[in-house]
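User: Could you check the structure of this?
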Amino acid sequence: MAEISKTADQALSVLLAVSEHSPRTPAQLARDLGMNRSVVQRLVATLHRRGFVIRQAAGYVPGTMLVRIAERVQPELRARGR
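Assistant: Sure, the predicted structure tokens are below.
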């Protein structure tokens, strides 16, 4: 089995947590995920810059990049569903 990237795994954990329980602040995410707050802050900043999360007054929520990715998932299946 191939080795995984710890940083990528942490970023995906943050993204999943935001998508399941938003809005979330970096402090809440760090507590929920058992991660260092400064690490979570850097991960969230990266996800925000890339459009995967959006900052709102109460915390971070899923961003538009997730919709763009979802639109590319099995387009033929989605077309038949319409």
